[in-house]
Design goal:
mainly alpha, about 60% helix
Length: about 675
């Protein structure tokens, strides 16, 4: 980073108000209590480990209007301190066996019993990092569970936790006192807001009292007692949503090297010497690395994600000279989260300087991992409890850890040459030369390669020997060599390949050479296309091209299916007279359809290669461009209908293809 924008190293990332509510209120309240019980000796935890909801309502909140959102959060938090202390004492005094006996059935509500058992074990540790890790796991599992229960009402589940807690449905299911308590614990910014403070990386290991985590666990286990309807449904099982599968990393599995236990020492040293890591958060990074080494990949990711956001927030604040935004937000100010950090502009409309600071490759790396809708969006899915975190695959953790390592290397206080480790060098180089795997353009490239490859299969379709002459004759009658040459030349001359492909090198026969076509596709898919912050018009064209490609693949697969099915029936003499005639039409039609699809591939490839210059098209020119592409889409859509095994409309398919080629010739002329 430029030395003029030095990364900030605050002693806390909690704003004074938030720190007072979470830390100071706890200390003051505890000092006022002579025992772990409240002054009047009220007992809040029953022998079976469940909350006493009556006492919570009539003693803790006796003078509150619990039918609405709390107003005086400071007083509410003060009232919850003795309850939290009792819950923590109870959790601390029991064994894992007792915890299982008392809580397993109660926590079946969540569908993530094993996660809460993990939380219990983490709370027994004296390591403060594990207390925060327990909170992260607990809030994610609780949020997912609340959403599953909400869906019992047959209403769409709100995406954000704050919106979910505001629903009448949850209040109806769980009662006013339960929802009132949740608003205090994980509600809006004016509340303890434990979920957001932890998941957005604001809290240092020692800043959140672990007693609140114990309270959340007991609270979650006690929710079923609040609802007879829920209890009755537990006997048959709540319909829990299936975990989200983070299968995206197959597209970038060879990007980074595998981190092994042998690499831990050099990475530990890197973490200690990188300005990217805030000193008060160092424990999280070291613990995450240890969990990775111990093959606890889910726990590694849960610790790394908030800290990656914390470090990037500091980078954002330094680059944009807004140091106050390093701290947690107050009720009147939004959090500075990944969405804002990685946006092209600031909320004020000013340019986000972090883009210049990091460069396109690092920005793409982050957008791929966290933002793009078709990417893994790993933080969203994990923090909302959508992933089976205890079964997370090594490849996910490896990718995230390598991303973090790349940033630590970029902002290391040591000369990069001192990191002689070849694996670290490999990670640095991969990040510096990164190209998006999950942007729509990346998906378009992959599908274009698939379509081009699938076309190869049309050259070797099984067919009766007697059909060869008819097929060739039909193709030549539909479109001549000169016309084909004219179309191909026009397409190429209006593309980035105009200087590279000479007319002499074009195929001199009435079809497109697959080698020629594959060469064009290979060139365009290897081009570095600037995908960061594409314009709306560019994304609209990319979307059209992807739809065209998808339908093209469907057409090819349908032709192969028809070919194999009809040939087998031909050989076994199962075709009736009408079916034999239709089969002959099919065989005669395939070369022309093949030609039409080959031209489609050429159009998609040249359009993709020119996507960067698309914003130069204005008004009528752009609309004509769009109209042609929509026509191409309609061609392959109709073709996918006509070429199905059920339709078998081959004369119509040929007419459709000839019309498309005519339109293409006129458009590119």
């Amino acid at each position: 980073m430029s030395h003029g924008n030095k990364l900030l190293n605050p002693s806390t990332c909690l704003s004074p108000t938030v720190q007072n509510l979470i830390c100071e209120t706890w200390k003051i309240s505890c000092n006022k209590l002579q025992t772990t019980f409240s002054a009047n000796g009220t007992k809040y935890v029953n022998e079976d480990g469940s909350l006493d909801w009556v006492n919570l309502r009539e003693v803790t909140f006796k003078d509150f209007d619990i039918s609405s959102t709390p107003e005086d959060f400071h007083l509410c938090v003060t009232r919850l301190v003795p309850v939290s202390l009792q819950c923590h004492d109870f959790i601390s005094d029991i064994t894992a066996e007792t915890f299982t006996e008392l809580f397993r059935n109660k926590l079946m509500l969540t569908g993530q019993w094993q996660v809460f058992l993990e939380c219990f074990h983490l709370l027994q540790s004296k390591n403060e990092v594990n207390s925060v890790l327990s909170l992260l796991l607990c809030t994610a599992a609780l949020e997912r569970a609340l959403g599953d229960v909400f869906l019992m009402k047959n209403s769409p589940c709100p995406f954000l936790l704050k919106d979910l807690l505001a629903t009448d449905e949850l209040r109806e299911i769980f009662s006013d006192v339960a929802i009132f308590t949740l608003h205090i614990l994980i509600g809006p910014p004016r509340s303890l807001n434990l979920r957001n403070v932890a998941w957005h990386g604001f809290a240092a290991p020692s800043e959140i009292p672990k007693q609140y985590v114990s309270f959340l666990m007991v609270f979650t286990a006690s929710l079923t007692i609040q609802c007879d309807t829920l209890n009755s449904q537990l006997t048959t099982g709540i319909n829990h949503r299936q975990p989200f599968q983070l299968s995206h990393f197959q597209h970038c599995k060879d990007l980074f090297p595998d981190i092994t236990s042998e690499d831990v020492i050099s990475i530990q040293q890197l973490f200690k010497t990188s300005d990217f890591i805030l000193p008060i958060m160092q424990q999280y990074w070291q613990a995450a690395l240890q969990y990775y080494a111990n093959r606890r990949y889910g726990l590694c990711c849960v610790l790394l994600l908030p800290q990656l956001e914390n470090s990037l927030r500091r980078l954002f604040c330094a680059a944009n000279r807004c140091p106050e935004r390093v701290l947690t937000a107050e009720s009147s100010v939004f959090y500075t989260t990944f969405d804002e950090i990685l946006s092209s502009t600031q909320p004020s409309g000013e340019v986000n300087e972090i883009v210049t600071e990091l460069g396109d490759s690092y920005m793409e790396l982050l957008n791929d991992l966290l933002i793009y809708l078709e990417g893994p969006r790993i933080r969203d899915h994990i923090s909302h409890g959508e992933v089976d975190i205890l079964q997370l695959h090594q490849s996910v953790a490896n990718h995230l850890l390598c991303v973090c390592i790349a940033f630590c290397l970029k902002y290391s206080t040591q000369d990069i040459r001192e990191h002689a480790d070849t694996k670290l060098t490999s990670i640095r180089d991969a990040a510096a030369n990164y190209r998006s795997c999950f942007h729509p353009v990346a998906y378009l490239k992959r599908s274009l390669i698939s379509l081009s490859t699938e076309l190869t299969n049309l050259e070797d379709l099984p067919k009766p020997d007697s059909s060869d002459g008819a097929t060739t004759s039909h193709l030549l009658s539909g479109i001549g060599c000169d016309k084909l040459q004219k179309i191909i030349r026009a397409i190429l001359e209006n593309s980035i390949f105009s200087d590279e492909v000479k007319y002499d090198s074009l195929p001199l026969r009435p079809t497109l050479s697959l080698d020629f076509l594959h060469g064009i596709v290979l060139k365009v898919t290897q081009l570095t296309v600037s995908t960061l912050y594409m314009t709306r018009t560019q994304l609209e064209v990319v979307s059209l091209l992807r739809r065209i490609t998808s339908h093209g693949i469907v057409v090819v697969k349908q032709i192969i299916e028809v070919s194999e099915t009809r040939f087998q029936q031909w050989q076994s003499k199962q075709l009736r007279s009408r079916q034999r005639n239709n089969y002959m039409k099919f065989l005669k039609s395939v070369p022309l359809i093949f030609l039409g699809l080959s031209v489609v591939v050429l159009i998609i490839a040249t359009q993709l290669g020119s996507i960067s210059s698309l914003p130069q098209l204005q008004g009528k020119s752009y609309q004509q461009h769009l109209k042609y592409l929509k026509g191409a889409l309609q061609y392959v859509e109709n073709l996918s209908t006509l070429t199905s095994l059920e339709k078998n409309k081959w004369d119509e398919s040929c007419k459709l293809t000839e019309d498309f080629l005519d339109r293409t010739e006129r458009f590119y002329s």
